[in-house]
Amino acid sequence: MKERSILALVIITLVMLAIGYLVAINVDVMPVAASSRALLVDDLARILFGLATVVFIIVQGALIYAVVRFRKRKGDNSDAIQYRGNNTLELIWTVIPAILVTFIGIYSFRVLSEIEVHSDDEMVVEVIGQQFIWQFRYPSYDVRTQELHLPVGQQVRFEITTLDVIHSFWVPAFRAKRDATPGQVSELVITPTELGSYPIRCAELCGVGHSVMNSLVTVESEEDFLKWIAEQSGVLPTPDLEETGSIPAETEIAAEPAQLVGSSIFGRYDCGVCHVLDDAGGFGHVGPTLEGIGETAAAREPAVDARAYLLKSITRPDAFVVAGYSAGSMPQNYEDRISSEELEVLVDYLLTQ
Amino acid sequence: MGSQTSALKDHFRAGGELGINHIKLGMWFFIASEVMFFGGLIATFLNFKINSPTLEGELLDVTLVGINTFILLGSSFAVVLGLDAIRQDKPRQLAFYLGITIVLGVIFLSGQVFEFRSLAAEGLTLTSSVFGSSFFTMTSFHGLHVLIGVLWASRNFIKTLRGGYSSSTSIGIELFGIYWHFVDIVWIILFTVIYLI
Amino acid sequence: MTNEEIMTAPIRWRRYFKWNTDHKVIGVQYLVTTFIFFLIGGVLAMMMRAELAQPGKDILDGAQYNAVMTNHGSVMIFLWIIPVFAGFANYFIPLMIGAEDMAFPNLNAASYFTFLLGGLVMMGSFFLGGANTGWTAYVPLSIIAPDGQTIWAVSLILVGTSSLMGAINFMTTIVTMRAPGMTFWRLPLFVWGMIATSLLVLLATPVLTTGLILVILDRVAGTVFFDANAGGDPILYQNIFWFYSHPAVYIMILPGMGIISEIFPVFSRKSIFGYRMIALSSLAISVLGLTVWAHHMFTSGLNPGMRVPFMITSMIIAVPTGVKMFSWLATIWDGKISFTTPMIFALGFISLFVIGGITGIFLAAIPFNIHVHDTYFIVAHLHFVLFGGSVSAIYAGVYYWFPKITGRMYNETLGKIHFGMNFVGTLLTYLPMFLAGMLGMPRRVADYAPEFTELNLLATLGGILLAFSTIPFLYNVIVSLAKGELAGSNPWRGLTLEWQTSSPPPEHNFESSPLVTSGPYDYGSAEGAQELLELAPAAGD
Predict the structure, then answer these.
(1) Is residue B4 domain-resident?
(2) Which positions in chain B touch C230 (Cβ < 8 Å)?
(3) Structural domain includes residue C8
(4) Range of the domain at A236
């Protein structure tokens, strides 16, 4: 009898190890791995899944076995055989989990130290969170953009900050995430390894537009990256964040048709993140649509003409709130950020829509 | 079931066996939670003191508050003497010591108000800086506890004059004593944390 | 009144709507009120699942979604799971330790009414535009939020204070009111669970109060605790908040584990396996539970060097939890199991809780945590612990003690239908969320990328099943209350003291003071249940 149970134990152990191993090498629940750290994290996840499956099967198996095997027979109202404890058994199920978590702990620690190693030739990218957009600044190229491009194989150090509340910069494909906390510069190191475009998402609730606070990271060859950087340099102003704390308005409102300038201002201040306006690429649903706003603006408030209505709606967003939308959704600081010339042009532009 | 049988039955119960009065035990659990409440405030203060040190601490008048600290210590001592008195069935002595406790408590509070006003005159307020915020929040909550203690002592004072306490019914004084000593000890910790280190 | 008269007497409804110091009345007040809040929280959950069934904006805009999500979380945690255990504890601690009431009956009633007030204030804040920052209410978002946030914070202080009053009362009652012979090592394990829980409440809840007061001061008095521009520290809030809110998870699960430990021996006709280890593991979880809070902050601005110690403590907690799981399995092993509704809910508890427990270890592993933190993986994990775990245990407890509280039996068939819907619904709702989180769906979003549509639709279908599962339960309770067959004092042939008196128990619980001569789970002794109790010598003899 005793030999038989030892044999059974050995067989069960071997079967469990085999199942755990099979699960670990086959499990596929993570998105594309596009950074060197993603591979390490995925290996850890595989081991966790392997071990978890074994523990899961042991517990559920024992439960199901007990439920089937130890049913009460009909009419049997007597008590069961009694035993109140077994020191060996209790020691085993204290020590084995302890060993398992020690192993997981040490392994996690090693992965953690490996994924956070800095190197000397890191490229620094500043990540600036703000309700509800991400901005990226490349100090070495003096470029500021709203989408992220990274050269493949180049280690990057993100320096993450926020202009308002806490956001969390997350690139699932990189398995990397770090909060943007007011008053702090948080760091995150990754090395992209796979060409392609991957979503960037905000992972910390930051207000009404939390779910639209997304962007894109494009991993490309060094050449393409430099080309892209060159294209960007001319396009957007590249202010120094530390001096102003927000984007100053250095615009050249020149000979361009007012329409084009208006739509570029609309784009520059990310109005489109929250408002639909096809002409200027607006797509968001946080705020009311601006299609046809030139006509509707006049009708919204009987006492206010269209121009005044729009001006006030931008500088004092809560002055008029369109039915179905909530006060407090729109940033309150456009008055400080947009120069009065730009504001005029923007309102003129909107009135033509 | 009448209260008399209840009381007799209590004798059989664990509290009687262990010699623990349930009201006093409940008070101690309450004090434990108060310790954690002040712990949170003190941790907040220390967090700012350690991570963003300022020179605003030098505005504080250690001498004045040091005297105030001794006044509060003295009031605690008066409560000890008062409890001792009622255990020997001397309610008039108890009333005397409770009176002293109340007077010293009021002096402490007046000292605190005076301190707050002179700090405000020098520009340190609840909203002026993290030091101001955490200093005033923490000391005000302590002050609030002192105020509650003074009111409690006044109620006990009146009850004493009406002959509400004797050597066998001194639990009310004991409970007040536990509370008052706690408020005192919290102050000693605050004094150390804010003014001395 | 004799036992017979008590058991057949009509229910005296009025006293449940008044200030009443009978712990059994207060227990029922808590149980019924919290269940109503559970239904409200469930409606909020279904609003979210409806919005999330398909991508795009359907029924809620961003602001409404955030308000619904925040109140779902705070209602379920603060107005359902934490206080419902206060309901069980109120009703059963005095009965289980052989006392005639709680140590402080008036404080007990005060604690219920403070809770009720807090709950109503929270509801009020919801209708006043409400908190919309998630139940975590991270600063500075919660500083700039609309006025409802202040009222919401006040409601949490009220509910927290109620919970403190309860904890003081439970601890004092357990220490001083035990009947003769009821030593600490003869306490039922539910009582041990409440000891561990009450200690956590005493030590952790006041710190939440501190944090909320600081938030309120920042909002209304202009203090700058969390204003980074003035040197304030948003991370400080996270430390304070999680110092309470991680222990809160154990506050929500330890009493449930206690209920499970009551149910297994009774329906297996077998003594609990490793009584002392289970009792001590609850205390170990309490103590360790106070040292793990920063594992919620692995991706925040926490000092990176602080992460590893918190990973270690978080992993160690798996050990006492494992001890409990294996001890329960050993308890039913070789037993004579009868599959009553409370028993299958308890078995379901093990099955679901183990998923929440194992994924907890995943989350303690920092590199994995960094990827899934603040995603639907977390949502899935916490619901397996709190819904699969705590709520299963609550349902198990309701069915187990229903005969004792009401004096009548519930309907087994309806109970089993309820279990089936609840179990399948739980798996269907929360399993897809693990996958969504790992694949890249953040939590607390009103909208999501189209690639997550199938997973969300599945979760919504599961949610609908869960919503409907309350129908057989409510029907069962209402019909059984009126027409259920009389239960008698001890329908389960249990050995703990609450079964040794009539159902429902008389006003002071026992006709004469019990004298305890053996442990709570000593099945298999020749004498059987009835003779475990000898009557104490009459008072004053």
Answers:
(1) no
(2) 129-130
(3) no
(4) 123-244
Residue C300: give the domain boundaries. 23-535
Interface with C, mutate which of A130, A177, A198 (most C CBs under 10 A)? A177
- The maximal CA–CA distance of chain A, rounded, in angstroms, is 98
The phi, psi pair for A167, rounded to 5°, reads -120, 170
In a domain, B68, yes or no: yes
- Residues of chain C in contact with residue B20, where contact means CB-CB under 8 angstroms, are 175-176
**Chains contacting B (3 or more CB pairs within 8 Å):** C
Q: Which residues contact C154 (CB under 8 A, 6 or more apart)?
A: C121, C216
CATH of residue B81: 1.20.120.80
ipTM, 2 dp: 0.92
Contact call for residues C455 and C379 (beta carbons, < 8 A):
no
Listing DSSP states for C124-178 in one string gives HHHHTT---STTTT-TTHHHHS-THHHHHHHHHHHHHHHHHHHHHHHHHHHHH-P
Is C465 within 8 Å of C404 (Cβ atoms)?
A: no
| Per-position pLDDT tens, chain C of length 541 | 556 666 667 777 888 888 999 999 999 999 999 999 999 999 999 999 999 999 988 888 888 899 999 999 999 999 999 999 999 999 999 999 999 899 999 999 999 999 999 999 999 988 777 788 999 999 999 998 888 899 999 999 999 999 999 999 999 999 999 998 899 999 999 999 999 999 999 999 999 999 999 999 999 999 999 999 888 999 999 999 999 999 999 999 999 999 999 999 999 999 999 999 999 999 999 999 999 999 999 998 778 888 899 999 999 999 999 999 999 999 999 999 999 999 999 999 999 999 999 999 999 999 999 999 999 999 999 999 999 999 999 999 999 999 999 999 999 999 999 999 999 999 999 999 999 999 999 999 999 999 999 999 999 999 999 999 999 999 999 999 999 999 989 999 999 999 999 989 998 898 887 888 888 998 886 444 443 443 333 333 3
d(CA B139, CA B191): 9
Q: Is B15 within 8 Å of C177 when comparing Cβ atoms?
A: yes
Is C270 within a domain? yes
A50 belongs to a structural domain: yes
Q: Which domain holds residue B156?
A: 22-196
A144 and A205 belong to one structural domain: yes
